[in-house]
Amino acid sequence: MSAYSLVLQAPALSDDIVAALAELSGASGVEARSADVVRLANADVARRDAVATHADSLGVDAAFVPAGKRFADYGLIVSDMDSTLITIECIDEIADMQGLKEQVAAITERSMRGELDFAASLVERVALLKGLPEKALGRVYAERLALTPGATELLAACKTHGVRFMLVSGGFTFFTERLKAELGLDYAHANTLEVVDGKLTGRVLGDIVDAAAKARLLRETRDALGIAPDAVIAIGDGANDLLMLAEAGLGIAYKAKPVVRRQADVAINHGGLDAVLGLFA
Q1: Where along the chain do the CATH 3.30.70 domains lie?
Q2: Residues 6+ apart with CB under 8 A from 78
Q3: Kind plus residue range of the DSSP H or E element containing 83
Q4: GO cellular component annotations, sorted alphabetically (predicted)?
Q5: 169-219: pLDDT as tens digits
Q6: Which positions are annotated as active-site residues?
Q7: Looking at the chain, which runs of residues are DSSP E strands?
Q8: C-alpha distance from residue 115 to each of 133, 238, 257 (Å)
Q9: What is the greatest pairwise CA distance in the chain?
Q10: Which H helix or E strand runs over 52?
Q11: Residue 211, Cβ neighbours under 10 Å: how many?
Q12: How far is CA 176 from CA 20, 85, 98, in A?
């Protein structure tokens, strides 16, 4: 059986919290410690659920990771966009330009929880945007879109260590292509909104990037690069990301819906995306 380290991340971790989680996890001792990250050696992965529940109640991110893993051991990160790499759900903010944010956001939330078929819910939401000027998308990008805390640090580490970064979104190419250019991402895939005479038609062009497409794009890119399956990290927050997370060597739920937290290898509930880096020795 592989040895696991338990990585604890939170601002100013106290000795009492570390000791309590060390005991609960059956760890043999402190392997490494900094102000915000503690690595406990030889933790019992069978105690993961109990540790996760208690750590979450303390505002601590707790993750069981294979001992000795380094960030540079990975060759590809595949990330969702909305509420993962960026802080907003773009479609909800676009809908706000139509005065329909509450209605669309409710559908988005149910879809992300896995209560609605993603493709059908996307078609339903996009239809409500019919007639909106395309320039409204530019306003959302310029005025409302912000990177998730820690995203800049994660992307910088990818460039330093030669880890490719792919954005795979059930959102829209209007945003993913701009982020790809601005941030220097290696790949970006999303849905294309149809625009005629400067206005949205309420339709999506081509096949919808749904859960199956995200997983397929991960596999295709991984294989094209010659990267081993266990050298891929996937990060997402909604039910539409579950197949993608399952395809990765390490699936990370980032501030995710409960269904995703339960099925991912690691859940980051409190920290920024730089907490991905803290997982590794």
Answers
A1: 1-68
A2: 166, 168, 214, 217, 218, 221, 232, 233, 234, 235, 244, 248
A3: none
A4: cytoplasm
A5: 999 999 999 999 999 999 999 999 999 999 999 999 999 999 999 999 999
A6: 80, 82
A7: 4-9, 29-33, 37-41, 61-66, 76-79, 164-172, 187-196, 199-205, 232-236, 250-254, 266-268
A8: 31, 11, 11
A9: 66
A10: helix 48-57
A11: 22
A12: 42, 10, 22
Task: Considering the chain, tell me which residue range(s) the CATH 3.40.50.1000 domain(s) occupy.
Answer: 70-281
Q: What is the DSSP letter of 38?
A: E
The domain defined by 1-68 carries CATH number 3.30.70? yes
CATH pick for 70-281 out of 3.40.50.1000, 3.40.50.620, 3.30.230.80, 3.90.550.10? 3.40.50.1000
Tokens standing for residue 133: 């000027």
How does pLDDT run across 82-131, given as a tens digit for each residue? Answer: 999 999 999 999 999 999 999 999 999 999 898 999 999 999 999 999 99
Residue pair 281/70 in contact (Cβ under 8 Å)? The answer is yes
pLDDT in tens, 34-79: 989 999 999 999 999 999 999 999 999 999 999 989 999 999 999 9
- pTM metric for this prediction: 0.95
